[in-house]
Specification:
The protein is of the alpha+beta class. Helix content is about 35%, strand content about 30%. It is elongated. The N and C termini lie far apart (about 110 Å).
Length: about 280
Amino acid sequence: MTESNKDAAEHPQQVVLADGARAGSSFELTYDEAKRLCQYSLDIVCISNFNGEIIWSNGVDCHITGYSKEELNAITWREITHPDDLGLVSESLQVVSQGELRPSTEIRARCKDGSYKWISWSGVPVIEENKIYSIGRDVTAQKIAEAEAKKLASIVQSSSEAILSIDDRKCITSWNKGAELLYGYQSAEVMGNSIEVLLPASQRNSCLLETLTSPIHDRQEIHTRSDGSAVEVSLSLFSVASEFALSSGTAAIIRDISKQKAAERWINQGVWIFTCTKH
């Protein structure tokens, strides 16, 4: 038993956490302070045995799942774990029962109303006590957001229209299949390169090079394909901000309007010929 554990055993109303921010200092957390820390936590703080039976919790598990404390005490977490996650739970319990730490494990827990919540678990085993001291965080909203982001990314990637994004340095940061078909460049060929690769020398005033202050809709320009041929396009641009970036970028949706413009020229030419013939 370490000196800190001996001290905790002799003074059960105090918990020695660790050396403080200043060298040589220490902070002693009283029992009541530790209890309040658990009580006010938004995460599940609990103690369980290696069978997954909850010995004690701060009650947040009741708030998340909708079960009463009595109901949760009468079952194990295995019983309310999604069937597809049971193997992961067994594997995690086996690892920690050997005294090893395991990175966060995410499982789905069945709530009292039949719905499921994603819980991210982190735990520290204490073999001699046959206990696991754990923290569980509800990451359901994060999981839903990730699923929606993947769905949106799939839609963007499979779109027949060219959809790309550029950063504040006017370098390409994303490139979908539609862009590959329109311009003839594979993603690996243009990612990180200047957007100017798509612009002929005569188009250096492109709105793609402007500092965007408001959305742009249906701006018509002439761009250059990978083979050097010209293509008439219609662009719609809007600003996008990253949660982690200090600056924003620009997203572009680009349509090939070459056939439409050719038809317009043919019609206009026909009208001109008809007018000249009439006179």
